[in-house]
Amino acid sequence: MDEDIKNKETADNELINGAFQHLLDTYLASRHRKKVDIITKAFNFARQAHKGVRRLSGEPYIMHPIAVAQIACEEVGLGSTSICAALLHDVVEDTDYTTEDIENIFGSKIAQIVDGLTKISGGIFGEQASAQAENFKKLLLTMSNDIRVILIKICDRLHNMRTLQSQPANKQYKIAGETLYIYAPLANRLGLNKIKSELENLSFQYEHPDEYNSIKAKLASTEASRRELFDQFTAPIEEALKKMGIKYEIKERVKTPYSIWNKMQNKHVTFDEIYDILAVRIIFTPEKREEEVNECFNIYVAISKIYKSHPDRLRDWLNHPKANGYQALHVTLMSKQGRWIEVQIRSDRMDEIAEQGFAAHWKYKEGEENEYTEDESELNEWLRTIKEILDDPQPDAMDFLDAIKLNLFASEIFVFTPKGEIKTMPAGCTALDFAFSIHTFLGSHCIGAKVNHKLVPLSHKLNSGDQVEILTSKSQHVQPSWINFVSTAKARAKIQAILRRDGREMQKQGEEILNAFLTKNEIENTAATIDKLAAFHEVKNREELLQALGEKTILLGEKDLDELHGKNNPSTIKGWRRLVPFLGRSKQQKKEDTTQQEFFVVPENFNRKKPIYITDDNIGQYKFRHCCHPIPGDDILGFIDNKHRIEIHKRACPVAAKLKTSYGNRILDAKWDMHKKLFFDACIRIQGIDRVGIVMDITSIISSQLNVNIHKFSITSEEGLFDGSIELRVHDREDAKIIMDKLKKIEDVKDVSQIM
């Protein structure tokens, strides 16, 4: 036995030393100053601190910090300070050492980064809010001082995603959902394109394994034809570049499984209908660095003589780089095979920044010895936006995450002020967003705007190149309806802050009304009493109830007293009768439904790691939300709500995405175990060329050939084209797919997609 332990220790030491040596070799090959001593010191300290601890996968825990440091060094290009912080990032959280200990041994800078990476307990958002949102907030606060905090956090998340297979399914959905909702867009915003793509793909792989494997298989089966297209398309381009005497490299860029699936979902198309799977990248090394922009355009002129270019698809990110530093010239050309192919033209420097993000900028700072420089204006602007959001904390975790997500991750447009200054704004922003981006006073008193010298309302959406002048009035006040059409985090945060300030006054009045009502009827003012009244009036919380009382939209009376004394008949209360997810039932099933099935309530000792199985018999015990209409065959998960009941959502549902991010510990793995006894609603959209008999062809396939009950059918025809929706009763997603495949074969039907 002792021999086995010794052998295990020897194998572990070899593994650990090999991984650390690989990290040192990578670091020594980089352009950073060679501070090997402090890195070795951090490694030995972390190794000792984590001694004897193993990960779920069984390997020594120290392998995780080494892997994170390896990613930080090799894939993000960070230096010694970051590598040390990566090696130490779990020490304060998982061992008895404190941030003070780290500061005493390694200095304040490393300690500050480690502190930013350490999870915290307690809550700015209150008891019910999620620790995840809390940790994210701390991360962003620290990041405002040092961007390396978030860069290392992304490296940490990438390694966790790469080793996710050792986690139970409910944890996989929580971590994958959080990654897709926050970390992949964050990586994108920081220009870490390679890491962003890998995070998206790994999340997709765990949340939708069947779709992931299916797309991977299709990409593999079409590889030969793609390679042939690439070779034929690039041959004349290579010839032209050689004649110009340019030092270049041509790469193919294949769309990732996640982005293909995303497009299939958003555009309602099949894999075969996606035409931009292949793109071509021309990466050149300029003779003079200052000539690289001109060289991009020279290459564009040369290749557009070979192939016709698409006039609407020229994207110039050279003179106006994206906010994450991305620079390139994108042009779409028509190949000899009749396919549009996007060509991305960029220098080697631009390519490195596109893959490694802001970290790569540091390599091109002449004479700079520091890893991090403060003069990235776009990045600083972004960090300033985060600080502004954090200055006014949202009362709810979900609001906070939404605010962060709203515009930090959006694509950009360029808008001009009346004086001709350029401002970068998120795509889809309105005149009111623009007003708030300049100044809170301007936004809160905005009555309209002039866009390109024409008068427009506050809700007018801006386009790239617009010149915007904001019109204000002292009598104007922030309206609650504004929240519905602003799209930037800053505008939304400011509007909510002003509305909350106004709301507090209203809530004060509501509290006085409530106190008077309870005192008059000799009822104690407790949290349970208020919760009962809030539930009875179908408002979310105490604040909303008091607000409504103050605004007189809720009036307290006899029914409220009956509710508090338990005298109300449940069948008369609005919203009591539960909607079951299936509608087409037999008489026997309808009879059984008259005895209401109680919701399953999760007990204290419930094993959250095991999957729950939804069967024909217990389906009524779960809540099916209308945000995503899950039916058998969909990838689903469970969520334990505030009343300990289980909601069922599709894994790709936008509401579920927020739940995974904010309340990950309440996520459950859910699976279907149905036997085609019950019916569910599925809605199919069908479009095509109108002709006599098209409706008869559609209905005869559904009703006669497939014997499926049509619940609702509506169709409109205009200028020779038709557009229709069919609501059907099906057993599962497979039934819906069979129907859709049959409908696609009808002559003149051009598009069949699923609405829900």
Automatic annotation (TrEMBL):
Residues 411-472 form the TGS domain. Residues 61-161 form the HD domain. Signal peptide: none annotated. SUPFAM superfamilies: ACT-like, HD-domain/PDEase-like, Nucleotidyltransferase, TGS-like. SMART domains: HDc, RelA_SpoT. Pathway: Purine metabolism. InterPro entries: ACT-like_dom_sf, ACT_dom, Beta-grasp_dom_sf, HD/PDEase_dom, HD_domain, NT_sf, RelA/Spo_fam, RelA/SpoT_AH_RIS. CDD domains: ACT_RelA-SpoT (cd04876), HDc (cd00077), NT_Rel-Spo_like (cd05399), TGS_RSH (cd01668). It comes from the Bacteria. It holds the Pfam family TGS. Gene3D superfamilies: 3.10.20.30, 3.30.70.260, Beta Polymerase, domain 2 (3.30.460.10), Hypothetical protein af1432 (1.10.3210.10). In eubacteria ppGpp (guanosine 3'-diphosphate 5'-diphosphate) is a mediator of the stringent response that coordinates a variety of cellular activities in response to changes in nutritional abundance. NCBIfam families: spoT_relA (TIGR00691). Belongs to the relA/spoT family. This is Bifunctional (P)ppGpp synthetase/guanosine-3',5'-bis(Diphosphate) 3'-pyrophosphohydrolase.
